[in-house]
Amino acid sequence: MELLRIENLNKRYYNKTALSDVNLSIEKGKIYGLLGPNGSGKTTLMKVIAGLHKQTSGNVLVDGEPLSHKSKALISYMPTENYIYGDYKVKHVIRFYKDMYEDFQEDTALKILNGIKVDTEFRVSKLSSGLTGKLKVALALSRNAEFYMLDEPLNGVDVLSRDVIMDLIMKSYNENKTMIISTHLVSEIEKILDSVIFLKDGVIELQGDAEELRLSKGMSVEGLYKEVFRNA
Ligand SMILES: Nc1ncnc2c1ncn2[C@@H]1O[C@H](COP(=O)(O)OP(=O)(O)OP(=O)(O)O)[C@@H](O)[C@H]1O
């Protein structure tokens, strides 16, 4: 069943075209990889879907309806930038999320943070970049949302932390949840993706089922990515 439909979406910042005639259908219960190099438009696309940027033209429909307060509440969006106030202790961030989001599950957050050894008495500014990355993902996944968008969750964290983050994503996923994960670290993320979207200079270059693409093209998604973006 379709959760999100994007029709003829264009986004321009002044004279820069960030997204050009994007058409997409996102089905419920799947994990999508939004893959592309720096500047390809991944963050812009997520911000438009999250309702944080207004498109220049085109339609974004969630459950068949244009973006609204109601549809935005279904989406748990993790921005790529470090948005958490550094002077807060982790426990204050949790309180903030609890106040901010009706679907935030404090017990889940505390369990995840305990499991990944993030002390809630710690100040956010004192966390390593690996722990900050894990905290951001843990907060986004602790919302009982229908639709998760994680923008570059593997960026700036070491290889071991990447494994922990992927494990968190897989443990919180179930067939009632839909996820879009953006990254340029394709080899790491490939194994958890059902479907892939290649974005190049604001244009969807390729999209499809990850397994079907591997079979039809005779290579991994990473191999395909390198082929498509080699001259980007
Ligand atoms: N606020 C803005 N004003 C002007 N141009 C912008 C703005 N935000 C993004 N852009 C431009 O739009 C294009 C797409 O940027 P975007 O951040 O969406 O790409 P991205 O794939 O997420 O890249 P990255 O991985 O570097 O975050 C880039 O050329 C970028 O410079």
UniProtKB/TrEMBL annotation:
Domain ABC transporter: 4-226
Ranges in a coiled coil: none
Origin superkingdom: Bacteria
Recorded GO MF terms: ATP binding; ATP hydrolysis activity
Protein's name according to its UniProt entry: ABC transporter ATP-binding protein
SMART domains: AAA (SM00382)
Record-linked SUPFAM superfamilies: P-loop containing nucleoside triphosphate hydrolases
